[in-house]
């Protein structure tokens, strides 16, 4: 990419980052309202975790097709269709959901919508922007996920005191429609190079996973996503629990505001993490950061009885560590993906990664129930420990693939 092309590239990156924020207005609505919905629908921790995780199961079910399709058709068309799915899922919860089954159905639809916006949006970016700055632009795009998450939390937190929870979901569903129109109108059409591969061949993950470097990033991302999405699903509820243990304290922020602020810390962590990884080596950096994240999960989980401010501090450090390897993993995957199979590589990456995203919230809720329930501080500690144990598998996967000639 020449200097002359830089302004055009920056416009494309800015447009896709803005669209990503709008596409995610409903992403954190369920976590923000989790405590209220547990009471309204009479859910156990496992049921609440299941609905939180089923969002990512919907993602997993749709991402192989939607991401792989971007190797055949313009990613912006896949993106627009998927924003409509996200809107239907989010609005559907507010308009029709009556309990666990119906809530899970619409959450899965919303997750399928994210499957066709997040990685296809990245594919639309990498199809249009190349050169030496591509890795940095990828970091900007992936870091914007954190802005979308925090903006969604703030939106739900602001609307919750004013409106019934159903209307919070319905209004949150307008953002994806705006995102789809922005991408459709703002990006010039760009058809991928013609391929002789059938759709069945494009969906076959085996050629991608034979590459040891790609496999390392995929497995590392699965561990990362287990921890990240488990944390995001339960963060507001845990902060609320920590606050309740200090009833006399003068706490300046609501649980949703604190969670949104913590989420914003992931943006610089992801961007600067990618820069550091490029200098010291991605493998070495990812192993170190994931190891720290695993330890911080345990520390944050057991901190609630000590002091609310300590809980927020440790959660902040934990989230910085969680997000510190995010862009490094994704940029590494894009660089390692074989020519002509980038969409398929992103599909496999997302499939296994967000599969971990389904299991994280579910196992967290099951651990919470099994270790004493939502009113037991130790149960929350062990539930957070489940995230740490999953994250600890990431460095092991990275190390094994490196021994076999994989990621650098």
Short synopsis of the structure:
The chain is mainly α. It contains 20 helices and no strands. It has helices at residues 6-23, 29-32, 34-41, 45-68, 75-96, 100-115, 118-128, 134-159, 165-172, 174-186, 199-203, 206-209, 212-244, 255-264, 266-280, 282-301, 308-324, 326-336, 342-370, 377-403.
Structure overview:
The chain has 408 residues and is mostly helical. The protein has one domain (10-187, 203-403): Up-down Bundle (Growth Hormone, Chain: A), CATH 1.20.1250. It is 79% helix and 0% strand. The chain has 20 helices and no strands. Helix 16 runs antiparallel to helix 20.
- Structural Rg: 20 Å
Percent strand equals under 5%
Structurally, how many domains make up the residues?
1
Computed structural class: mainly alpha
Provide the CATH architecture: Up-down Bundle
The tally of beta strands, per DSSP, is 0
Which class in CATH terms? Mainly Alpha
List the uncertain runs: none
Order of helices and strands: HHHHHHHHHHHHHHHHHHHH
What general outline do the C-alpha atoms trace?
Answer: globular
Based on the structure, what is the oligomeric state of the protein chains? Answer: single chain
In CATH terms, the superfamily is MFS general substrate transporter like domains
Average pLDDT value? 87
The number of helical segments is 20
Report the sheet with the most strands, covering strand number, pairing sense and barrel closure.
Answer: none
Q: Please report the distance between the alpha carbons of the first and last residues.
A: 24 Å
């Amino acid at each position: 990419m020449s200097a002359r092309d830089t302004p055009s590239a920056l416009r494309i990156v800015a447009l896709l980052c803005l669209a990503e924020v709008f596409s995610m207005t409903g992403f954190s609505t369920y976590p923000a309202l989790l405590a209220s919905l547990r009471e309204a629908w009479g859910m156990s921790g496992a049921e609440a975790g299941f609905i939180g995780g089923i969002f990512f199961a919907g993602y997993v079910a749709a991402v192989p097709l939607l991401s792989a399709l971007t190797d055949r058709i313009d990613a912006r068309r896949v993106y627009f269709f998927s924003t409509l799915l996200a809107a239907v899922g989010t609005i559907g919860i507010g308009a029709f959901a009556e309990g666990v089954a119906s809530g899970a159905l619409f959450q899965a639809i919303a997750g399928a919508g994210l499957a066709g916006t997040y990685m296809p949006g990245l594919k639309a970016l990498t199809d249009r922007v190349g050169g030496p700055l591509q890795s940095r632009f990828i970091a900007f795009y992936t870091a914007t996920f954190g802005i979308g998450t925090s903006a969604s939390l703030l939106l739900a937190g602001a609307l919750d005191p004013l409106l019934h929870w159903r209307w919070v979901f319905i209004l949150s569903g307008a953002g994806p429609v705006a995102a789809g129109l922005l991408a459709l109108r703002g990006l010039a059409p760009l058809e991928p190079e013609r391929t002789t591969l059938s759709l069945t061949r494009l969906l076959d993950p085996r050629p991608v996973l034979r590459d040891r470097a790609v496999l390392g990033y995929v497995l590392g991302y699965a561990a990362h996503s287990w921890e990240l999405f488990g944390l995001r699903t339960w963060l507001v509820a845990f902060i609320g629990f920590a606050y309740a243990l200090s009833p006399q304290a003068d706490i300046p922020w609501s649980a949703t505001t604190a969670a949104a602020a913590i989420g914003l810390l992931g943006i610089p962590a992801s961007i600067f993490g990618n820069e550091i990884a490029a200098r010291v080596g991605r493998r070495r950096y990812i192993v170190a950061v994931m190891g720290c994240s695993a330890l911080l999960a345990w520390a944050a989980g057991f901190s609630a009885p000590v002091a609310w401010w300590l809980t927020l501090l440790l959660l902040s450090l934990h989230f910085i560590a969680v997000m510190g390897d995010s862009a490094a993993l994704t940029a590494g995957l894009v660089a390692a993906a074989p020519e002509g199979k980038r969409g398929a590589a992103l599909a496999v990456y997302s499939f296994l990664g967000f599969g971990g995203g389904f299991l994280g919230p579910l196992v967290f809720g099951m651990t919470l129930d099994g270790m004493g329930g939502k009113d037991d501080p130790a149960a929350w500690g062990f539930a957070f420990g489940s995230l740490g144990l999953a994250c600890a598998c990431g460095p092991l996967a990275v190390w094994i693939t490196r021994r076999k000639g994989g990621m650098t």
